[in-house]
Amino acid sequence: MSFALDGPAGKLECEAHAAAPDVARNAIAVICHPLSTDGGSMRNKVVTMIERSLRESGVDTVIFNFRGVGHSEGTFDHGQGESDDLAAVVAWARKTSPTAALWLAGFSFGSYVTLRNAVRLDAAALISIAPPAAGRGWDFGPIELPSCHWLVVMGDADEIVEPQAVYDWIDGLPEGRKPQLVRMEDTSHFFHRRLMDLRGAIKNAVKDWLPGPRTA
Predict the structure, then answer these.
(1) pTM assigned to the model
(2) Residues 6+ apart with CB under 8 A from 2
């Protein structure tokens, strides 16, 4: 289902997908795309693979374009306004599925936006694909870390986000706040030729997180 949502800077272009009834669980995931100024959108192939992986696992999904992307109104706001966009989509998801657990997922810049808002939005699970924890201008230091289920998937051959910097960042996190880390060998930032492996990594990680069946 495609729809336009009233966001803080104008209309937001959104798309919602329901899990098949025979596998549906009582959870809904909002998924955020990579950096708008580098051409990121909800049509990015990593985003669509995250969406597919979660929906196949039984989680309803919502993808959307941040402000200034596609048919979403507004202009790029360096993660601040994009956080407000995410909050608006989450509010819609909670109104639509009031009893469902909220999951957040993001790729690259989208993982920065979801992480920095996971506590504020009371996420029950978080999936961070290639989080730009060093360089690229995003400050992960002051972010309040979630205590929910949290998966990080990182390619060892990422040419945009320095893999070792991400591993060092995770190593430095307090015990009890460290994510489950999946390192993928010979894998670039955009998971070229490794998208099915990404699908498997996500589905394997979340299978133990899934809430009970959706009842309505």
Answers:
(1) 0.97
(2) 13, 14, 15
